[in-house]
Amino acid sequence: MKHILAVIVENKPGVLTRVSGLFSRRGFNIENIAVGETITPGISRMTITVDGSETLIEQVAKQLHKLINVIKVSNLSNEPSVMRELMLIKVNAATGSRSDIQQIVETFRGKVVDVSPDSMIIEVTGNDEKLEAIKLLLYHFGIKEIVRTGKVALLRGSKITRES
Amino acid sequence: MKQKMTRGSAMILSALEKEGVEIIFGFPGGAVLPLYNQLYDASIRHLLVRHEQAAVHAADGYARVSGRPGVVFATSGPGATNLVTGIANAYMDSVPLVLITGQVASAFIGTDAFQEADITGITLPVTKHNYLVKNIEDLPTILAEAFYIASTGRRGPVLIDIPKDVFDQEALFSYNKKCDIPGYKPTYEGHAGQISRAVKAIRDARHPVIFGGGGLIRSGASEALRELAEIARIPVILSLMGLGAYPGDGELYLGMPGMHGSVTANYALTEADLIIAAGVRFDDRVTGKLESFANKAKIIHIDIDPAEIGKNVIIDIPIVGDVRLVLEEILKKLRPGNTAKWLKQIESWQKQYPMPLGSNNAENVLKPQFVIRELSRLSGENTILATDVGQHQMWSAQHFIIREPQTFITSGGLGTMGYGFPAAIGAKLAAPDKKVICITGDGSFQMNIQELATAVYNKIDLTIALINNRYLGMVRQWQDIFYEKRYSHTSMEGNPDFVRVAEAYGAKGLRASNEQEATAAIEQAMAEKGPVLIDFSVDPEENVYPMVAPNRPINEIIVRGD
């Protein structure tokens, strides 16, 4: 099962290396990772997606917690949460196919963010399923390039993941 | 708080003084010239080793005996990389160290400058934490944090890498030992509910055993352990790291478990209905095949590191906390136990399977087990034993009677050949009033033999008992048992005459190749001021038994080889 961990860290040099190094040397697989600042100065939040059993995730969380710069680790998969990822897709878009592409983008509430004579860049946000679906639909136009931010997630409701 | 402008190198020595550091183990070089220049006028003692690795091992031995962090200085590049084995060794065995390395000057970092190595990157997986000091203003806090992190919670090595120019920069200095690190709050007190569950489990158990490890020694839990065992009448098994936490000649002591443990300890773990695991981490050398480890037992696991609980073995009653504090809480609620029937079963195993004294393959051959028993008998109770790694280490664990905590110094987790001799030097410096013996092998000793110079020059009074079998014995044993005696590159042909080597360094050297000579040599060495080396020429093909083959159930123990 896939788990999403919210890891609150002190924004110190090398903290990303410490976290990612821990995953590789303990044989845990990071599916993806997204890092950014929080509302508290000096504190960053990593959202890490890991695939594994409950036991493995518990061990991952405990090992992460041992890192001095890690302040808090929460498993968001255990509770209702909102999860999003942003994807940019550069797709072949000759004059004849543009309106078809446009329609798909609208259906997925995406945006066309760049147009050139033979290609477009589309921005789309959503969960895994949605991103995979639009990818599939755009596939036959010829996808030239894809980039994804990695997932980020927040607990639903007023509950928060504390930053200290 | 008064603050004044202070240079980086002065801040370091001032911090060491405030931390009560008595001795630094080190080796100078280009990037630490400013630090060593400061040290020239300082009152703190510095032990100059002959190889940086020995500095870490010596600091490690010092820390294990004194319970206080060992301090190491080394230069950038090769000086720092030479520390890595020693750091990994300390990390595996949770030994508190503070290591200060010089780095190339700030402006040169990242340019592949002369003697540059990314030591914080290299040691990331083997330190509890590490720092690269980029601003002199950060140095006071970093120094305090390093000592705090190294010596609290589950202890471990902390490295501070300091660019050469930072040693000479100045900033306001005040030293505050109290640290507030948001991501570091070790748990010391055990959860009351879990403690009650543990007490109930102990009360209900019919076949309980205590399985204790290094955590008992680090937390000073020996007294509590002894009370627990004696009040509830529970037999005690100690891991290699735990030896000394309960007296090796104690009434309820069953020996070490696992690969080269006692038959009784392995049978007891297999048949137990309750294991009280205290400060252990269920290493593969202990558990054997995990699926069949202690299948009949409920397990209480007490450890300060939550990540150790449930890592290898499924735990019924986890208790995160300081082992001593938790045991003391359990003691408050403990009732006398009656395990007479179980102890009787154990006694019959003990009678049936005594520790083997060696094979009877030849007349008049000196057996390593005999040598170690004699060392144990003749050294007296006030002795610290440091070992290297290999067969002699296992024989020491089996045959040398360790009575007190912090008197058995060995490389447990990493299994570092070359550890024992420098660690013995550190041990002696931590406990000058105790007799120190280093039991080593001809393979291990040659990995840090250069420290004879350090020992002789500094008049370190210790005995080096070299169990010389002209082989890398433990590897040869595995080749014997698992690889059809194909002794690939395990012969130590080319060994020097160790007695003459010792003499060349100015140490006393003795030889023994039979039992009479061995006893006489040990008696002489015990009476003399060291360093003394005794070269015991022992049976080259003696194997360590009992033995559990790797990844086999621990009750499938081979009692002896012949």
Write the layout of secondary structure elements.
The complex is a heterodimer of chains A (164) and B (562).
Chain A: E1 2-10, H1 15-25, E2 30-37, E3 43-51, H2 54-66, E4 70-75, E5 81-92, H3 98-107, E6 111-116, E7 119-126, H4 128-142, E8 143-148, E9 152-155
Antiparallel strand pairs in A: 1-3, 1-4, 2-3, 5-7, 5-8, 5-9, 6-7
Chain B: E1 4-7, H1 8-18, E2 23-26, H2 33-39, E3 45-48, H3 52-66, E4 70-74, H4 78-81, H5 84-92, E5 97-103, H6 119-123, E6 129-132, H7 139-151, E7 157-163, H8 164-168, E8 170-173, H9 192-204, E9 208-212, H10 214-218, H11 222-232, E10 236-238, E11 253-255, H12 263-271, E12 274-278, H13 284-287, E13 298-303, E14 317-320, H14 323-333, H15 340-352, H16 368-379, E15 383-387, H17 391-399, E16 408-409, H18 420-430, E17 435-441, H19 442-445, H20 452-457, E18 462-468, H21 473-482, H22 498-505, E19 508-512, H23 515-527, E20 532-537
Parallel strand pairs in B: 2-3, 2-4, 4-5, 5-7, 6-7, 9-10, 9-12, 10-11, 12-13, 13-14, 15-16, 15-17, 17-18, 18-20, 19-20
Antiparallel strand pairs in B: 1-8
Helix pairs in contact in B: 1-2, 1-7, 3-5, 3-18, 9-14, 11-14, 16-17, 16-23
Keywords:
heterodimer, A: 164 residues, alpha+beta, Alpha-Beta Plaits, 5-stranded antiparallel β-sheet, 9 strands, elongated, B: 562 residues, alpha/beta, Rossmann fold, 6-stranded parallel β-sheet, 23 helices, 37% helix
